Each structure stands twice: as C-alpha cells, then as structure tokens.
What does this fold into?
Amino acid sequence: MSEPKYNLEERLLEFAVRVIRVTESMDRSPAGVYVADQLLRSATSPYGHHGEAEGAESRDDFIHKLRVCYKELREARRWLRLAQRTPLVPKPELLAGVVTEAEELVRIFAASIRTAENNRPPSRAKRSTPNS
It folds into this structure.
C-alpha cells in the first residue's frame, strides 16, 4: 500500500524539524533567545498534540485537542513573521517557505475543527469556529 499524499502527522513533523533548524540558527542575543524559545515551543507542540487528538476519548476531547494545535500554530506563525522582519536569523528571506507552511497548517486545523463541530451530535452546543 502506498503512502497517502496528504499526511498531516508527517507535515507537522517536518514543520517542527524546519523550525528547530531555524531556531538553532538564530542570533543568541536576548531577543534572539526569547523569540527562539517561544517559536520552538509553539511550533513543535502541535506535533505532539495532534497525536493526542488521534487518541481522543470523545468528540469534545478531539475538538479541544485540535483547538490546542490551532492555537499553537497561530502563535508560531506570528513568531516566524517577527523573525522575518528582524535581524535574528542570518537570511530572513529564507523563512518564507516555513511561514507559508504555518499558514497552510493553520487553515487545515481551522477546517478540521469546523468539520468536527459540524459532525458533532445535534444535542451539543456549538462554539464559534476559527477562521484562521
């Protein structure tokens, strides 16, 4: 059986790897250390939280874990954009691809949350759906 074209786990893993490489190349000034730390935490946690979502105990638990991934990816996207505009990395122009991937992952999780909420049994109250 061939590997599916769309493998979210693999995309999250590769995103985390790319961000680790970015943070390792960041300037070690106080600002660089702070941004690297925040970016590292927010960009790598969705990989683990996605694994938790796969083992969710209920629909609500699943949605909650997806929302955690979504929130962390949005935060990572902001830290990446900040790193693009500051002299914290040697070649900020090379961050465009990882910023684009962050944007795509945010949209994927927003759509996944909407789908999960729309497929929730009707007796459940619906929360507002993210718009990326």
Q: What stands out?
A: The chain has one domain: 8-118. The two ends are 34 Å apart (CA to CA).
